[in-house]
Amino acid sequence: MEIGIVGKPNVGKSTFFSAVTLVKAEIASYPFTTIEPNRGVAYVRAKCPHPYFNVECNPKNAKCVKGTRYVPVEAIDVAGLVPDAHKGKGLGNKFLDDLRQASALIHIVDASGGTDIEGNPCSIGSHDPVEDVRFLEKEITFWMKNILAKGWEKLARQAGSEKTKIEAILADRLTGLGITEHEIKLAMHNSKLSENFKEWSEEDLFNLTNSIREISKPIIIAANKCDIASKENIEKLKKLDCIVIPASAESELALRKAAKAGLIDYNPGSDDFKIIEKEKLNEKQMHGLEFIREKLKEFGSTGIQECIETAVFKLLNLIVVYPVEDENKLTDKDGNVLPDAYLMKKDSTALDMAYKIHTDIGENFIRAIDAKTKRVIGAEHILKDGDVIKIVAKV
Known about the structure:
37% of the residues lie in helices and 19% in strands. By secondary structure, the chain is an alpha/beta fold.
């Protein structure tokens, strides 16, 4: 699973990426700083089950801090997008191709209105950030439509002659984007298209593609630079028909770097921090930290951690489950206690979890055991967030 970090140039995408991953990305105040995509690991928080069992955990894939698991999520920061990117303008084709496997997108918008539609710096407040939201959605839809429409007449003939369902043919065309036949079928239903696909107009195809985009690549808006944005701009963005979170990537990056250097005690997503090495900070740094503290009180957080977690838990509807090999000791084969945390779709079954661990385990599934209740559960048992599960399979 991959979260795409998107937006026009010079809005803070690479700063956002660096803040959530602490991977160094080139950051500058000019368009197309990012050429090749940056990849890194971000983390979402979940309640660790070790206090429930009154044991100490020693996780492998997701660290635990004071009872909170930090579960890894892959993040990708791609080149900036400008109007007509689907026609190849700017680095449009590369931008869009880099997003093929993203499960959800975080759209970084300059809420201060300090960058024009092309990503060039302009006077703060002179550009309407709502325009950026609309154009990016449109560009992604056009990009997907171009993929679908290529050779459309041939596709239509194929479906007609082979009696193949059109959703299966479209899914095959979009398989490189990680889009399923079920998602296309749902989009067709939502678009209320005629059952006779040969009657579809260009507008019908655009509306269908737009629905496919909304379902397969859901978007959350990070209203970045909220610390210098007008309240009017923030409110205008919040009125859009999507999730909008005020954010300050620069503040989050500063806090995480200071925490990594041991200067402050800060947990991502918190509404405050504690200075622990005051004598090592100069006057300018102290002033900067106090400014950030004031904004934390105003907004509740920098918004960066909230963006990642909202994308994972709300847009993608994922839960966290914990596989173990010994339901009594809560260990894997090496004796690690509560070693792993997996992100899975809500309503996943015990069998789904078995396949996620390994294909062979899924194919040889016998039963599962809920470590909290010690009850035996079957293949179709629906998992809950925070479940600790042992899978029993044929050897």
